[in-house]
Amino acid sequence: MLATAFDYDPLDVESFFGREHVVFVPETSGTYLLRVAGAADVANEYAFVAYRRDDPCTDDAFEENDYVPWATPIEPGELTAQTCFYDNDWWAFEVSEGQTVTADVIFTQASDTEDLDAYLFAPDTVSELDASASSDANEAVTTVAIETGTHYVAVQGFEGAENAYTLRLTVE
Ligand SMILES: [Ca+2]
Ligand SMILES: [Ca+2]
Ligand SMILES: [Ca+2]
Predict the structure, then answer these.
(1) Where in the chain is the domain with CATH 2.60.120.380?
(2) What's the 141 CA to ligand 1 centre distance in angstroms?
(3) Closest ligand (CA of 65)
(4) Which of 46, 54, 98, 153 has the maximum number of C-beta atoms within 10 A of its C-beta?
(5) How far apart are CA 117 and CA 90, in angstroms?
């Protein structure tokens, strides 16, 4: 299944595990059409959600890292990044068994629309080792690794929240 915004070069198109996503900035006001098409002789049901945002978000240069296979590789240290509307950031880093890993997500939150949360995942990419999902800043996840391998941190905007943040990764 393929979603296109007719006659527009989309800013962003993603296709992943049954999810299609298209973002575009219209040049003029008016009514726009979205076409959803299947391949030849293919029929399927789908759910459709459209959002209109008045103030486009400027994402960071680490994109695309919205899903774990596209996680951005990082080393211990600090970087600054940005979440945009329903656009999560995944980060990947190496950890040895017995090391303590801590990821601090530092940001300024004035409202729910800036609420970021953080999740730490094991090398299998699905076992959640820690979660930090408070309703105010900041968030931090930590664990003592029980295996050597690539670990992952996901930074997620709560219900599509957008915000800039500093990710500080410590492995020791
Ligand atoms: Ca981002
Ligand atoms: Ca992202
Ligand atoms: Ca939070």
Answers:
(1) 68-171
(2) 18
(3) 2
(4) 153
(5) 12
